[in-house]
Write a structure and sequence with these properties.
The complex is a heterodimer of chains A (390) and B (153). By secondary structure, chain A is of the alpha/beta class. Chain A has two domains: 6-20 and 290-389, no CATH class; 32-286, P-loop containing nucleotide triphosphate hydrolases (Rossmann fold, 3-Layer(aba) Sandwich), CATH 3.40.50.300. Chain A contains 18 helices and five strands. A five-stranded parallel β-sheet of chain A has the order 2-3-4-1-5, with helices on both faces. Classes of the chains: A alpha/beta (390), B alpha/beta (153).
């Protein structure tokens, strides 16, 4: 039909194009193509983590386009949708892309994490805790041994200006002396070191746990830590991560993603032995390129089976006598094999991002053809794939 | 050649503007932009209206000669959105507002525009605009391909 949309033309299921992007369409977080072994391995690690140390602490790295963002979003979705039996609470996941300037220190990391968690969320948890307990102050003592943090949390539950300034204090921002007096804390959070910030973060995790949540941060683009050149700033990031990684932290989980072709290319702050030994090396996971022909085929078949409305495509193939199969639609069988061959030529380039882009661009080329083509043939693949994988 | 406020390595450039001209009365001309795109091999997507006037055709001719530029014509386009997707992503930025990619918009018209940097809250907005311009907009039936990209990085 001339008035068909791209989605209708290619029998796409609930999506405008073949592009997969969970940052734009959160439903895309459900998708994870062709990496069943890796997904099983990750699930096992997560399941174990909820037993000990009770929250996951993991890192994913790989080259550009290897699927880090998709892995992080999918893992977060999977953690909630298919909660491991070892997880007693409801996972509360927080996504953020970490921004790092050359002089950034752990204060910046703490601020970004707390702001992504949001003041309203913590206030809601405190209110729930307050409503369900007869001695709120005693509950706060269980949350944290730090008197200043307890005071800030008590103010935060109360609302108003005191709550707002207490939240600013908990995020590590500088307050005027008068503001510190008003919220009845004795010093700026972090004045005595990174441990102060981590204590506040763990207190937030403990509140989450007290109301039946497991707090897990999913933090992407940590390769920005390569920008941190100053020794003290770099050490503060490292200390913050080391303390969160310690087994004594059983309430704040994290899953980090960073771009690194090999582990040697990773920011040293993240992968020093005192961190990796705490989280165990099994939780430092490389996202390899697909490389092998079988991997690429599985990935593409899996992707098409999820994105294509199969009954509709089957009807179209039959009614228009298209020279394709349901398995490879909208590619002809030979164009499908050809694209997989191109994708395997250079293992460094056989990434999910490049493959998805090739499929989308091939389909757009078929769509642009005059007359419009229903299927992607060899000529289109030969036009598009070499410049993406070449 | 530095044309932008920031000058990061670009993954792609998207220009959505109903009208374009050669910008020859501006500090940087359309020909300068085309040279930069060619030299730095920046995949560039232009969505605009079909050229009618000689000044539009002149601008089209400059961009049509560039293998790294895909041109689509959409007669319904009224948006003015410009997205530079960079590596690293945090260096990306976008501009949207009332101004076309014309000398008059830059030099003499009263226009408004909002610059978005891919940091903090701006990050998602830039990402959404990138997705809309490089995916959704390109496959609208009204966005007719005028000239395909001959080279994709």
């Amino acid at each position: 039909m001339p008035n068909d949309s791209f989605q209708e033309w290619f029998c796409l299921k609930n999506r405008a194009t073949f592009t997969v992007d969970p940052k734009v369409n959160i439903e895309d977080a459900q998708l994870y193509f062709g990496r069943d072994d890796l997904r099983s391995r990750i699930r096992k690690q997560v399941s174990r983590a909820f037993i000990d140390p009770q929250v996951p602490k993991m890192m994913f790295y790989g080259s550009y386009g290897s699927g880090k963002t998709q892995t992080l979003y999918h893992l977060a979705w999977d953690m909630k949708a298919n909660k491991p039996s070892s997880c007693k609470n409801d996972p509360h996941v927080v996504h953020l892309d970490i921004e790092v300037q050359s002089k950034s220190s752990a204060d910046s990391w703490h601020l970004q994490m707390t702001e992504a968690l949001e003041m309203g969320t913590v206030q809601g948890w405190l209110q729930t805790l307050f409503s369900s307990s007869t001695h709120f102050d005693a509950e706060l003592v269980k949350i944290t041994p730090e008197a200043n943090i307890r005071m800030a949390l008590a103010n935060l539950r109360g609302g108003g200006d005191l709550a707002f300034n207490s939240w600013r204090w908990l995020t590590g921002q500088s307050l005027a002396t008068k503001e510190l007096q008003d919220i009845k804390v004795t010093r700026k959070l972090g004045d005595v070191g990174v441990g102060d910030l981590v204590s506040a973060m763990i207190a937030l995790g403990n509140i989450a746990r007290a109301v039946g949540r497991s707090l897990v941060f999913f933090m992407d683009e940590m390769e920005g830590l390569q920008n941190v050149k100053q020794g003290d700033a770099a050490e503060s990031w490292h200390d913050y991560l080391r303390k969160l990684s310690d087994n004594s932290n059983s309430s704040v989980g994290y899953v980090l993603g960073f771009k690194a072709d090999t582990i040697d290319d990773a920011p040293r702050i993240l992968v020093r032995p005192d961190v990796t030994s705490r989280i165990s090396k099994q939780n430092l996971i490389e996202l390899e390129t697909l490389a092998a022909p079988a991997n690429v085929k599985t990935f593409v078949e899996d992707m098409l089976s999820h994105l294509i409305d199969k009954p509709k495509a089957d009807g179209l193939i039959q009614s228009e006598h298209l020279t394709t199969t349901l398995q490879t639609y909208p590619f002809t069988a030979t164009a499908f094999d050809l694209m997989c061959d191109y994708a395997c030529q250079d293992p460094h380039k056989s990434t999910p991002r490049n493959i998805i882009r090739t499929i989308n661009e091939c389909a757009i080329t078929a769509w642009d053809a005059t007359p419009r083509k229903r299927i992607v043939d060899d000529s289109i693949v030969n036009d598009i794939a070499p410049v993406i994988f070449g | 050649m530095r044309l932008f406020l920031r000058d990061p390595q670009l993954r792609s450039l998207t220009l959505v503007s109903p009208f374009i001209n050669t910008l020859k009365d501006c500090r940087f001309s359309l020909a300068d932009l085309s040279t930069k795109i060619r030299e730095q091999r920046i995949p560039t997507y232009l969505v605009t209206r079909r050229p009618v006037e000689p000044w539009q055709i002149e601008a089209f001719n400059i961009l049509s000669a560039n293998d790294y530029i895909e041109i689509r014509c959409n007669e319904s386009i009224h948006a003015k959105v410009f997205v530079a997707s960079a590596n690293p992503e945090s260096e990306s930025f976008a501009l949207f507002g009332s101004g076309n990619l014309t000398g008059a918009a830059i030099n003499s018209n009263l226009e408004v525009g909002m610059m978005l940097f891919a940091g903090g809250l701006g990050r998602k907005l830039v990402h959404d605009l990138y997705y809309w311009t490089t995916n959704t907009l390109r496959v609208l039936p009204e966005s007719k391909l005028y000239k395909p990209m001959q080279n994709r990085k």
